[in-house]
Amino acid sequence: MTLMDTSRLKSLWVLHYDCGSCNGCDIEILAALTPKFDVERFGIVNIGDPKQADVLLVTGPANNRNKDVLKNLYDQMPQPKLVMAIGTCACTGGIFHNCPNILGGIDKVIPVDVYIPGCAVRPEQIIDGVVLALEKLKGNAPVEEDE
Amino acid sequence: MNPETLVSINVGLPVVSALALLVLNDRRLRTAIVSLSSLILVSSSFLLYQAGGVVFSPGHIFEQAVVILDFALLLYFLYVGLKAKSPQVVLLGLAQIIPAAYFEFVVKGTHVENIMVVDSLSILLTLIINIIGSVVVIYALTYMDEHEHHLQLEKSNQNRFFFYMIMLLAAMNGLVYSNSLYWIYFFWEITTLCCYELIRHDMTEEAIQNSILALWMGLVGGVALIGTMFVSYYTIGNISLSELLVATPGQYVLLAFALMAIAAFTKSAQLPFQGWLLGAMVAPTPVSALLHSSTMVNIGVYTILRIAPAIHGTYLTYGIAFVGIFSFLITSIIALSQKLSKKILAYSTVGNLGLMIFCAAMNTSLSYSAAIILLVFHAMSKGLLFMCAGIIENRLHTRAIEDWAGLITRLPITAKVMMVGIISMFLPLFGVLLGKWAAIGITTSAPSILGMVMVAMMVIGSSATTLFWAKWLGSFVITPLVKGTAKNEELSAGYKLSLYGVLGLNILTSLGSGYVIKAIVTPIVEMNYQLAWNIDILTLHSQVGDFMILPLWGALVAIVILGNLLISSKGGEIKPPYLSGENVEGNPIGFRTTADSVVEYNVAGMFFDSEITEARWVPLSTIAGILLNLALLALVML
Amino acid sequence: MMITMNLERIIQVLFIIFAPILGGILAGLDRKITARMQGRVGPPLLQPFYDVIKLWGKEPFIASPLQPMLVMGYLVFIMTGLILLAFRRDMLHIIFTLTLADICLIVAAYNSGSPYSNLGARRELLAMLSYEPLMVLTAMGIQMVTGSFLLEGIFSYKLPLLLVLPAAFVAQQFVLIIDMKKSPYDVSGSSHAHQELVRGIYTEFSGYTMAIVEITHWIKTMFILRLMSYFWVNNLAIGIGLALSLWFIAILVDNIYPRLTWKHMLRTTWLTGFILILANLVGLVVLGVI
Lengths: 147, 638, 290
Fold this sequence. Notes:
The complex is a heterotrimer. By secondary structure, chain B is mostly helical. Chain B is built from 24 helices and nine strands. Among the domains of chain B are: about 310-535, no CATH class; about 575-605, no CATH class. The longest helix of chain B has about 30 residues, at about 120-150. Chain C has helices at about 1-35, 45-55, 65-85, 90-110, 115-145, 150-155, 160-165, 165-180, 205-230, 235-255, 260-285, and one strand spanning about 60. Chains in contact: A-B, A-C, B-C. Strand 6 of chain B pairs parallel with strand 1 of chain C, so a sheet runs across the interface.
């Protein structure tokens, strides 16, 4: 592994976007960033600016209003980038699947690399998801997770 | 060609050209006359520089002519005052004409042995006047055509305009060559006349009012100079400036200098006389460029430079320095709140002149040389800035700098030149900062607590200038420059010559600051002071520290090379800005909001509107200025 | 004597060459200490280097064609300032060189067309208005005490600078906090993991331009720390110790204080820092030291 690969694994800057979530998963994401779970020890920082972010954490289902914003944010992120769908709503639409105005999971709008189901997702699961994402960055085949 | 002839050309040629321009109101003839005179004036100035200087008296007929013209002028001022119903003008006019008549006809004291004394200081001023002045007048040829076209005038009154512009150059040249206080006073009042006529050129209500303001403030200076003449005559027996400067200092000699200093303050718009310069902004831009950079306002600095060696070590000199640095402080702060381009430039000019006067009056060899450095470089930078501001104003029809945002896309050439002009006013690489660096260095040479007060004022003022220049600089580039959207700008030949000429000169002289100091500044400083600089290829060494110019230009070259390498190796796709994901296609400042409507964001400028208002600051500072000026007269006693 | 001179020169050159690396290590240490103060483990020490390398390898996005050139200007001028500082040249001239560098960054931020970077740039100007006078006043203090702006003069002065200009040293704390973009003065953009106006002045920098800005920021912090070490030149260990203690206090203050407004920043730096140094200078005049 080159120095560049190592650096990319060790420095994941996160952009967190709430697509339409009830905020349950958002609170859990923030919890993951707090000292109790401390994802900063992995080099993960909540950077808030798509131009500087590597990972897009999305919660909530995609709908007709936020699909443009989601696409816009995704486009403003430079490669290499990853998208993680946090929570069941982001994965498939969750309990809002097939509701009016709901398109479904965010993979209807942008390509998703890691799906983390849960309602709400636990911080431990988020960290597991991050490990999966790192595996993907390393170039390994996706590992089957049973939950 | 002997120096007397050169001096006569510098004073006489502009008079002849001015009269020709007044009579011949034809555009092509005007261009020809202006271009030819400019060429001759610039050449004769260089030849005079090489000649080194001269002392002589023009024939008796000229002395008589000056007397006649002077009284005609004073009567004209009285007429203007009566017609405009301005009590200040009338009273100040009488306060001049009565003593002048007494002096001329009763005392008969106006004769001086050597009327013209041309030394290196005179030659420096004449170079600035003629070079920058000529460039501005050539610029004015194009500008006035546009200006009159915009005003849709039926009959051009450019003949009157150029008459006074060129006459101003003649008067300025005459002033810096004169040794007779009467002749200095005469040329001084001619500049007041030209200033008055040029400010009121457009004949709007505002212009007429501001011209009267400039007139009476100028007349205050005239009265002060009459006072100087009287004091000089009754103290040393004549009105020769060179003899006054070497007279044994006593209370009355110092009084003469104090009065000259006050006259200098009126010309350089120091507190409390700053009002006329601010008001002069209503005049067409070439007037601002000529008055504020190369001619009139420099007269005040020239005066202080002349008298400084004679008042070395007195309380008076520190009093004058205090007025200078106080003006610098106040105007730099007020400039933070200004939204009109020419007002910012005007306040900055007053501030820089204050700094020059401060340096000259602090009376050390380094400070004296700093004043001259500032004089030279400020003339170029400010002239350039005013010319650019005029072009932009003509194109955009607004002076509000908030409407000038993103100028680098709309008027690329002028915007870039103006940006370099702004950079040259407050950042290293250029000469104005060299002067400011030296000025900061000498601030601590005032005695004890006064020195500390000056230190505080200098630091505050200097920080304020950095802030207002930087925020203006930033506003030029606010709209991203995307290839294809930049408009092509067409600059006419006259504009190009003026802008690129002054810009090029500024860059060359800044690069070669060491050489400029050795060739021009040091000869003037050495007339009365010790050597201030020790210059080698990389560094300008002085007693307060080292200033390095070439290393920074070297860094600039490195930036250009490395930057281009970076761009060619990495490049980059230009992406729209971050607007919370709500960007609108094709609109760089638009974003979507409620009901998917498109709104354009607007970021207003930072102007400290509530804290720094002219209404609050100007009256107080004017009162402070009046008190300081009166204090000067008291300091003479000490 | 000659050998000592050469040794000094070698140390200066080494400092210049290693400043970016030292700066990065300090940045990593900063994050580690901050994490421990917050009861966490924190990232590894070399984290800033991973960040910068990763940024360099990102797909290049720029906000405008001017941006890369201006960012390079920021880097080169800061480096020039550092070189002049290490070689003990003219303090006031160095401050103006730093201003030139900052203006490059500010113009780059204005040029990016985003309201966040516009506001960040403007606040950066206000930050400059807060710390620059303190540095200029310090330079003038040095000139009054040693006779010239040349930092070389400190080395031949009879007393350590800390003893004659203690207020100037204390004022450097303000300068450091503002430069490190730490609370309460992180109004124009904040150090890691904090957001202010998205990323404030840094909002539109991305990939390699952000990497260069990061590295330049490290060098600038090293610059200020080196300046602080000049307050005790007789003993290098004490000098470095002084610098690092102010650095530590900045981290401590960051973890205690919330972010405050720019008006508060101006008010406290001027009313405290500026007046303190001025009082120091007046005191020196009264005591006859100057």
